[in-house]
Amino acid sequence: MPNPYFWTFELIVAGLFGLCARHAWLRGPAALWQLVAGALFGVLLELATLRQLNAYRYGLFTVMVLDVPLAIGVAWGAIIYSVRLLSDVTGLPGWARPLLDGLLALNIDLAMDAVAIRLGMWDWGMGLERQYFGVPWANFWAWFWVVASFSAGLRLALRWRQRAAPWLAPLAAVLIGLAGVLGTNALITFVVPRPLYEATVALTLAAALAVVAGQRPRFEAARAGPPAFWVPFVSHLYFLAAGLIAGIFQAVPFLLLVSVLMLVIALGLHRGVWRPWLARRPT
Question: Among 74, 216, 242, 271, which is least packed by CB within 10 angstroms?
Answer without folding.
Answer: 216
